[in-house]
Design brief:
Elements lengths: L3 H16 L14 H11 L10 E2 L3 H4 L3 H7 L10 E4 L8 E17 L5 E16 L3 E12 L3 H10 L9 E2 L4 E15 L2 E8 L2 E2 L15 E10 L2 E12 L11 E12 L5 E12 L21 H6 L5 E11 L4 E11 L2 H6 L7 E10 L8 E10 L14 E2 L2 E2 L8 E12 L2 E14 L31 E17 L4 E14 L2 E6 L2 E6 L9
């Protein structure tokens, strides 16, 4: 039977893990928030470090040595919040049970200038539950229900796609849109080398502001993750269940199930060099012929899966990628990404602009403690993604989830430049970010796909050759964001924030510009980036 070798591997691995002694350190995950992650990188991303900054979310066990993290969060992000400590056996401290229940929420107000001038408000409330059983089992669950209005361009996005960017399905309300954001996990760390996590949330691979492999731009999804961390190697097996809702009647209740199996291997191969290898296969749970569900062929934990896909004669959507970084010094780091969806070397050599040469490239640089100013980091990044990358001849098999791309939030068919500057001191954090995106998009009434919308089947392309980045209706987007925040409570990770943002978009010569400041407080659970 063709599954025999895969099942045999998992059986041996399970027996080995269960037979080993438990590890004495917790591996709780940190939130997807740059206010936490970027200071940690500034502290830990040094020459010869065994830290892997390209695998998110980070775990407390990996970042406890970061001086800033110890000072601000008192070395343990979650233990500091625990309200109850119960021991299963009063004569033993081997299996302490610690529980925590804290509120989460947001309350921000702002206004939008320009032709659609108005005020808006983001409101949400919920609970966060954390628990630890002994030193090997960790649980974190949070739920927040929100009722919010947004700047006009964000509301237009929600109207078109029915989903609040990075959050959840948007239902119309008197204020604007109601939506839920729920995420959490059960994490088991039997020994220091292995972690098993069953959860709902996001994952990211890459060192840039963007990721062309897997980013945190989409809505949360269900996943099972196995992390192996040995010496210079960190290896992630990620199995996920997602939803296709693109033009599905009755969505989200009536969605198409889709699944993915991804691998990412990060290697600190030398004092200065790091390499990451990536692959992902995505497939629909049911097609016109058979109800596949989660295909056990893709439980193969060994990179690479592409030979498995070929052996099955499969038309599933496959991606491969590479992440490479070089530390020129403790202050300067160069990084890059390459994603390959499909290509033919002979067509690239002939420079024919063949439509199926689908790939993306990222180049970036980080400058820690810039100009010898402690805690100041500068970052510049360039992203290039060819038309039709991430797409498929079936929209349900596009590399996306809940009408949102899983890689770059803008989809494909673009050039982009990004600049970030961030500075932190104790509980204060300030960030300046600006982006310039040049993209070719489809016209509103055109069924032809020029390659930006990854959910449009690529067989709707107008031609096979002469395909180039920027084809279609021209779109130029520039954004600017200045954010300052102060950590009010380390126990609940609540911050006071003020944002000053601009959004300038020109489509086929027609421009609109808005300025939209906002102020308020929120729990730090996720990044909120609307610059696409």
């Amino acid at each position: 039977m063709r599954y025999t070798h895969t099942y045999r591997f998992w059986l041996v691995l399970t027996i080995t893990v269960l037979s080993l002694e438990t590890f004495s350190q917790n591996r709780l995950y940190l939130p997807f928030q740059r206010q936490i992650n970027l200071p940690i990188q500034n502290n830990m991303d040094t020459l010869g470090s065994m830290f892997h900054p390209d695998i998110f979310p980070y775990q407390t066990q990996d970042v406890d040595s970061a001086e800033w993290f110890q000072q601000v969060y008192q070395a343990d992000f979650y233990t500091d919040k625990f309200l109850l400590d119960v021991k299963l056996n009063k004569n033993s401290v081997k299996f302490p049970v610690k529980l925590s229940l804290t509120p989460v929420g947001e309350a921000l107000v702002g206004f939008e200038s320009g032709r659609d001038a108005k005020t808006f408000a983001q409101t949400g409330i919920g609970l966060n539950f954390s628990g630890m059983v002994g030193k090997v089992l960790d649980v974190n669950i949070n739920f927040m229900g929100s009722n919010s209005s947004f700047p006009s361009y964000v509301e237009n996005y929600v109207f078109r796609n029915k989903v609040v960017p990075g959050q959840g399905w948007g239902y119309r309300s008197d204020l604007g849109y109601y939506y839920n954001n729920s995420n959490g996990y059960i994490s088991y760390s039997p020994i220091k080398y292995f972690n098993f996590t069953l959860g709902r949330g996001k994952n990211k691979f890459g060192e840039g502001y963007r990721s062309l492999l897997l980013s945190d731009a989409s809505t949360n999804y269900n996943y099972f993750r196995i992390t192996t961390n040995i010496w210079r190697f960190k290896y992630v097996n990620l199995f996920a269940k997602m939803d296709d809702v693109y033009e599905v009647p009755g969505a989200p209740d009536n969605s198409n199930d889709k699944y993915s199996s991804s691998h990412y291997l990060s290697i600190n191969i030398a004092r200065r060099w790091s390499v990451g290898l990536f692959e992902s296969i995505q497939w629909v749970g049911q097609d016109s012929v058979v109800d596949r569900g989660f295909d056990p062929n893709y439980l193969n934990p060994i990179i690479f899966l592409r030979p498995v896909e070929f052996s099955m004669g499969s038309g599933d959507n496959a991606l491969m990628g590479l992440n490479v970084s070089f530390k020129a010094s403790n202050q300067v780091k160069l990084y890059s990404q390459l994603v390959l969806d499909e290509f033919k070397l002979s067509e690239i050599r002939d420079n024919t602009g063949w439509w199926a040469n689908k790939y993306g490239v990222q180049l970036g640089v980080k400058y820690y403690d810039a100009f010898n100013i402690d805690r100041l980091t500068l970052q510049g990044e360039f992203n290039y993604v060819r038309p039709y990358t991430y797409s498929h001849n079936l929209s349900s098999q596009a590399y996306g989830h809940m009408n949102q791309p899983l890689a770059h939030a803008a989809g494909a068919n673009f050039n982009e430049g990004v600049f970030l500057a961030n500075y932190y001191i104790n509980k204060f954090y300030i960030e300046l970010k600006t982006t310039v995106l040049m993209q070719g998009i489809d016209s509103g009434s055109d069924t032809v796909s020029y390659g930006a919308n990854i959910f449009k089947p690529y067989d709707q392309r107008p031609y096979d050759y002469g395909v180039e980045v920027g084809q279609g209706v021209s779109r130029l987007l520039t954004t600017f964001d200045l954010k300052a925040s102060y950590l009010l409570s380390a126990k609940a990770n609540i911050r006071a924030e003020i944002n000053l943002s601009t959004y300038n978009e020109t489509i086929d010569g027609v421009s609109r510009s808005i300025f939209w400041p906002r102020i308020g407080i929120r729990t730090g659970i996720f990044n909120e980036d609307w610059d696409f």
